Amino acid sequence: MTPWKLLDSATVPGNGGKLQLYQRGDEFSIKLAGRGELMSSRVHGSEEALAEQTCSRLGTANPRVLIGGLGMGFTLAAALAHCGEQAAITVAELVPAVVAWNRGPLGVCAGYPLRDPRVSVQEGDVAQQITRGEQYYDAIVLDVDNGPEGLTHKKNNWLYGMDGLNAMYGALRPGGVLAVWSAGAAPEFMQRLHKVGFEVDEVKVRAHGKKGARHIIWFARVPE
């Protein structure tokens, strides 16, 4: 079997550990040193479902969308495929190297979505974009970690806590959708969504089509 080759590594800002990009043939893997694999180019069905099902819940074909976490670009590519030509999609990525990887060797995986003119990239914490203005976004899509209870970066606690959820509620337009991907169940997080005032739909999806691990996506809508 062809061995994995380490292509690059990068430190996560704020002492969040070290990301490592590996390649084996036409497969890619991003790992967190000492913690294992975070994502793989072989398994991305739930990331695509995250964007597809978000867009299907919106009342406009040309939404303003904020995506937290670029990853391997699969969520972004799916959002582009299901949005109109006048959509505006902002991707916030904490690790600059991940952006560079997607503009380089990783880009082929999702079809180089960063080249689309509808996309703007902000290198930094997604929280900075969330707080840019009241009722600004039609959708906020979060795939920044392993979920509310599977954190690899402590600063993400703010996103999934009451302060972050209240900020995202205020940043969404009436009828806007907050979509959150998770590797597993998090009943306390769902309770917080309800407490903030969201109308919540919990959807179970498979990691790879109809196969693979079962992941969870919460779609939390701001009442109109």
Which descriptors apply to this entry?
224 residues, alpha/beta, 4-stranded antiparallel sheet, globular
Could you explain the architecture of this structure?
The chain is α/β, with parallel strands linked by helices. The chain is built from 8 helices and 11 strands. The strands form 2 sheets. It has a 7-stranded mixed sheet with strand order 7-6-5-8-9-11-10. It has a 4-stranded antiparallel sheet with strand order 1-2-3-4, covered by helices on one side. A hairpin with a 2-residue loop joins strand 2 and strand 3. Helix 1 runs parallel beside helix 2 (74-81). The longest helix is centred in the first third of the chain and has 12 residues, at 45-56. The model has no long low-confidence stretch (mean pLDDT 89).
Mean pLDDT across residues: 89
In terms of DSSP E residues, the strand content is 35-45%
Radius of gyration based on Cα positions: 16 Å
Low-confidence stretches: none
Q: Could you say which overall geometry the principal axes of the C-alpha atoms support?
A: globular
What portion of residues is helical? 25-40%
Structural class: alpha/beta
- Total strand count, please? 11
Distance between the termini: 55 Å
Q: How many helical elements?
A: 8
Strand order of the largest sheet: 7-6-5-8-9-11-10
Order of helices and strands: EEEEHEHEHHEHEHHEHEE
Tell me the major beta sheet. 7 strands, mixed
